[in-house]
Design a protein that fits this description.
The chain is 28% helix and 28% strand. By secondary structure, the chain is α/β, with parallel strands linked by helices. It folds into three domains: 2-43 and 84-150 and 278-338, FAD/NAD(P)-binding domain (3-Layer(bba) Sandwich), CATH 3.50.50; 164-275, FAD/NAD(P)-binding domain, CATH 3.50.50.60; 351-490, FAD/NAD-linked reductase, C-terminal dimerisation domain (Enolase-like, domain 1). The strands form six sheets. Strands 1, 2, 3, 4, 5, 6 and 19 form a seven-stranded mixed β-sheet that branches. The protein has a seven-stranded antiparallel β-sheet with strand order 20-21-24-23-22-25-26, with helices on one face. It has a five-stranded parallel β-sheet with strand order 8-15-9-10-11.
Length: 493
């Protein structure tokens, strides 16, 4: 039986990152993958959907620019757009495969082994690998589970991945549907609503059981996203409950019941079910291994499961399901096993981005979370219309929102940026949160001009009472307030 220092099950973002970090410790590693390298993070998840989003955004912008010159919008070729997405996926997958192949011809050849197959833990150290009709057993001193997740199915819906689809089936459509209903108004559902409405070929319906989409987000952010969706033709079914969905004559018929007890029937060409993801741990271990799980996934303590030599990272856990978080957890688990991390894994400074219209990036707490925690804080908001770069881009829709503690230290609690270049504007703040620093470090940074990040500097200067633009003079574009026991008050300088 072949023995390894570490066996990593799953070669998606978290598993791949774990295996590569283990190489740094010169350990003997086996990396196992049932399907393809890259996992859902590449093949039918983050990379593919974001490529669709980029192409949709470019198409929407192109359409608007043509109107300036009174030119007719050319027809879209779905096959060409789909092929562009597939090329992007192939580029990334090929890069990961080439990297492993090159490692096999380097000094790391004796350390890293990659195998395709289905893994099952027979004990806390023994793993059976099945590849076709072949079976073999291997031994691992340590094991990292990184098998990812899959779209969550609702058993009452007729999901066939052709007419009623999840994010996996939607990759294989043959043409833009003329209409589509999306079940689920969370991040995934809203991103796909943005994508398909952006191409301008599909009438999108979005089912929202509450009074607004993205219920975890602040109201001012949701207001911008909802307005843009509806301006792009999206029909948002607010305060509604899906009570029936059927496939009839190759189309989708669905019935909603609203909060006032009224009902309505709709007919569309396709349906997308986007109600979250389910961790992949079925048949992953024998009963006697007895790893603790919950409805959300494997329960872990700083990436370590209740079985001391088995760790879990990425979407299979009950933690945050993001590619960057999975990679962070994979690397951190290896450092716990073979090294000595300087500190525990923290999630407070994790940067996120939602690919909407406009994009929304964030780090730390938002106002909704701060209120739920009963925190007192200061919040400053700056509209994109006062940022030179946004003016130059001829798109001033958006704002920056910064939360700090309501004391003299003004330590950063979180930030949200809504608008163009949102994701590039938050890294400095993420670093300060991880360092538990206040805002003065940001106040005197020399930012490139013109850039969106200059808006962050102006937010900080507002909090310090030395901003270029005064919030009391530009009300509606700038604001600087305190929230104490849930009551707001303008900050007076």
């Amino acid at each position: 039986m072949e023995k390894y220092d570490l066996i990593v099950i799953g070669a998606g973002p978290s598993g791949y990152a774990a295996a590569m970090r283990a190489l740094d410790f010169k350990k003997k590693i086996l990396l196992l993958e049932k399907n393809v390298i890259g996992g859902a993070g590449v093949t039918n998840g983050a990379l593919s959907s974001k490529t669709w989003w980029e192409l949709s955004r470019e198409t929407s912008s192109f359409r608007k620019n043509l109107k300036k010159f009174n030119l007719k919008v050319p027809s879209l070729n779905y096959k060409e757009i789909q092929e562009e997405v597939r090329r992007a996926v192939s580029e990334r997958k090929t890069l990961l495969e080439e990297h492993i192949n090159m490692l096999h011809t380097s000094d790391h050849a004796r350390l890293l082994t990659f195998k395709n197959g289905t893994a099952k833990l027979l004990s806390q150290n023994e793993i059976e690998i099945t590849h076709g009709h072949l079976k073999e057993k291997v031994w691992g001193d340590y094991i990292i589970l990184a098998t990812g997740s899959r779209p969550r199915y609702l058993p009452e819906l007729p999901i066939d991945e052709k007419i009623v689809m999840t994010s996996e089936g939607i990759e294989n459509m043959a043409e833009f549907p003329e209409s589509m209903v999306i079940v689920g108004a969370g991040v995934i559902g809203c991103e796909y609503a943005t994508i398909f409405s952006g191409f301008g070929k599909t009438k999108v319906h979005l089912i929202d059981k509450g009074s607004r989409i993205l219920p975890f987000e602040d109201g001012d952010i949701v207001e911008v996203i909802e307005r843009n969706m509806e301006n792009n033709g999206v029909l948002i079914h607010r305060n509604s409950r899906l009570i029936r969905m059927e496939i009839k004559h190759g189309r989708v018929e669905y019935e909603l019941e609203y909060d006032d007890s009224s009902k309505e029937v709709f007919n569309v060409e396709k349906a997308l079910v986007a109600v979250g993801r389910t961790p992949n741990y079925e048949d992953l271990w024998d009963d006697k291994v007895n790893i603790t799980i919950s409805k959300r996934g494997i329960e872990d303590n700083d990436t370590q499961t209740n079985v001391s030599n088995i760790y879990a990272v990425g979407d299979i856990t009950a933690d945050i399901s993001l590619v960057n978080v999975g990679e962070l957890e994979g690397r951190y688990a290896v450092e716990r096993i073979f090294g000595n991390p300087n500190r525990r894994l923290v999630y407070e400074n994790i940067s996120t981005i939602m690919f909407l219209n406009p994009e929304v990036a964030g780090v730390g707490l938002n106002e909704t979370q701060a209120r739920e925690k009963g925190m007192d804080y200061k919040v400053v908001t700056l509209d994109y219309s006062v940022i030179p770069r946004a003016i130059a881009k001829r798109n001033t829709q958006g704002f920056i929102k910064l939360l700090v503690t309501n004391d003299d230290q003004m330590k950063i609690l979180g930030m949200k940026v809504v608008g163009n270049h949102a994701s590039s504007a938050i890294q400095a703040v993420a670093l300060l949160i991880s360092m538990d620093k206040g805002i003065e470090e940001l106040a005197e940074c020399v930012h490139p001009h013109p850039s969106i990040t200059e808006g962050i500097q102006e937010c900080v200067r507002m909090l310090l009472g030395k901003s270029l633009f005064k919030p009391y003079a530009l009300k509606g574009r700038l604001s600087c307030r305190t929230s104490t026991a849930g009551n707001y008050a303008d900050i007076k300088f």
